[in-house]
Amino acid sequence: MKRLIVIRHGKSSWDLNVRDHDRVLAQRGVDDGHLIGEALKELHINPDIIWSITAARALQTATLVSEYLDYNLTKLKLKRTLYTFDSEELLNVISSCDDSLNSLIIFSHNHGITDLVNKMGNTRFDNVPTTGVVAIEFDTDSWSSLNRGVTKFHLFPKQIK
Length: 161
Fold this sequence. Notes:
Elements: E1 2-8, H1 27-42, E2 49-52, H2 56-68, E3 77-78, H3 87-94, E4 103-108, H4 112-120, E5 133-138, E6 150-155, H5 157-160
Parallel strand pairs: 1-4, 2-3, 2-4
Antiparallel strand pairs: 1-5, 5-6
């Protein structure tokens, strides 16, 4: 059994004139990161590994959420290849996960995230919002052989505010 938890980065700030990769979280993104982190803690989520894109806003979101999960931040893996808006590219990166690990959290961008969870899970979402979480379980022992799984839960900040 493999569990994939997909989290969209938090709401970013447009206040600074920086390149897209360097945009940081807006205050709402920080607040929602704490909110989602607390909710995942209450669900006793303990990932084997967490991967994040290298974009500042995603790394900030990953750091905030990871603290609530008592996840050792030295194990957080930065994956530039997750910096994509394409679900197939996301799936290719996910399929490279070591099969000895059963629970993977990724932090990435939309539209790739919404497309991925709609393709791989059994619940349809019009849009995974910023800091939105979708968890899917797969009846397989190999990340490279993921097929359609079962959407176990989703958490969107508006649901829990």
